[in-house]
């Protein structure tokens, strides 16, 4: 899950950002969403839809 406004893990940091962490997982489905690190509080419905999408085969 990649939040486009997340400042807790800046996406551009090649060693510690979102994509660096995702690469460590190996094969995965990367799902993006609009919002910050706190999207579970600010837009829980969007997060639920994106989690459902991420879990599909």
Structural notes for this entry:
There is one protein chain. It is built from 3 helices and 2 strands. The protein has 57 residues and is mainly alpha-helical. The two termini are 16 Å apart. The relative contact order is 0.23. It has one domain. Strand 1 (2-3), helix 1 (18-24) and strand 2 form a beta-alpha-beta unit. A two-stranded parallel sheet has the order 1-2. The longest helix has 11 residues, at 44-54. It has helices at residues 18-24, 39-42, 44-54, and strands at residues 2-3, 32-33.
List the SSEs and their pairings:
Blueprint: E1 2-3, H1 18-24, E2 32-33, H2 39-42, H3 44-54
Parallel strand pairs: 1-2
Provide the descriptors you would attach to this structure in a database record:
two-stranded parallel sheet; mainly alpha; single chain; 3 helices; 57 residues
Strand order of the largest sheet: 1-2
* Percent in helix: 25-40%
Described by strand count, sense and barrel closure, the largest sheet is:
2 strands, parallel
What's the count of strands? 2
H/I helix tally: 3
Q: Mean pLDDT, nearest integer?
A: 83
**Radius of gyration using CA atoms only:** 11 Å
Beta fraction: 5-15%
Helix/strand/pairing category: mainly alpha
- Termini, distance in Å? 16 Å
Q: Which consecutive residue ranges, at least 5 long each, have pLDDT under 50? A: none
Task: Categorize the overall geometry.
Answer: flat
Oligomer classification: single chain
The succession of helices and strands, N to C, reads EHEHH
Number of domains: 1
């Amino acid at each position: 899950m990649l939040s486009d406004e997340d400042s807790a893990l800046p996406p551009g940091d090649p060693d510690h950002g979102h994509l660096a962490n995702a690469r460590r997982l190996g094969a995965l489905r990367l799902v993006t969403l609009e919002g910050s690190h706190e999207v579970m509080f600010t837009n829980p419905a969007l997060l639920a839809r994106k989690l459902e999408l991420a879990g599909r085969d």
